[in-house]
Amino acid sequence: MSTADIIDGKAFAEGLRARVTKAVATLSAKHGTAPGLAVVLVGEDPASQVYVRNKNKQTAEAGMASFEHKLPTETSQSDLLDLIAQLNTDETVDGILVQLPLPDQIDDQAVLDAIAPEKDVDGFHVINTGKLATGGDSLVPCTPLGCLLMLRDRLGDLSGKRAIVVGRSNIVGKPMAALLLRESCTVTIAHSRTVDLPEECRRADIVVAAVGRPEMVKGDWIKPGATVIDVGINRIPAPERGEGKHRLVGDVEFASASQVAGAITPVPGGVGPMTIACLLRNTVEAACRRRGWELPEM
Ligand code: GUN
What we know:
Shape: globular
CATH architecture of the largest domain: 3-Layer(aba) Sandwich
Mean pLDDT: 97
CATH topology of the largest domain: Rossmann fold
Number of strands: 11
Order of helices and strands: EHEHEHEHHHEHEHEEEEHEH
Largest sheet: 6 strands, parallel
Low-confidence stretches: none
CATH superfamily of the largest domain: NAD(P)-binding Rossmann-like Domain
Strand content: 15-25%
Distance between the termini: 37 Å
Bound molecules: guanine
């Protein structure tokens, strides 16, 4: 048994952000204006507040315009739709992101589908999910895109590889599977009703875990040498660190899986940092397409 290489998502994300920053500087010098991203947060969810703060900070650091819209928890769907209509026609806004989850009175998909598809930097609009599924050219959801960039960096050509995606969410599992299929992988999507999940995982050269269950995927589920991408971020009690303390773990049991895998992403510091870096990349891409600018290398 050997120990897996650790895929350093933090370093990878820093590299991508540096390339995005350079692209933004090139575009700004050439066209006299920078791409702009609007982020909408409804309510007070603490995790969402942290994400949104980081998104705004990193957008500004990359040299782009950052527009923040914070609305109260009790905001009606129609008020939110009014704001989106306004952002859709705002020429300074190239990307619109509505942070999920939204409060119960609001229908998430109705809101996502109200965003102009060409400004949908999350890639969640039904037109963009449809294009991804049918092989069209679309904006791709940020977390799966980050996973794919790390997989390509590690493995090069993915064609013919057996991949399993554990989890079928609209945000990660389904678009991840569509991306891997587009790379000509043989893709299995596993979920709560999958029979003998350990055996399904053992067949895979690539395991992407995105179920939101702490340390569910065990080391003896992993094929020796496989590449493991852990999308989960779970906060669990850590009494060994003192009373009331917590720690972050992924959906993969890192201690055992890292003894078997060829390469694995850690939690934290794996997939997490890549998501915002990909959002910035998508914003530049959306700006170039919408404004008819040539897309710089990123
Ligand atoms: N909430 C958790 N992940 C995401 C994401 O990628 N985009 C949005 N809009 N909300 C999220």
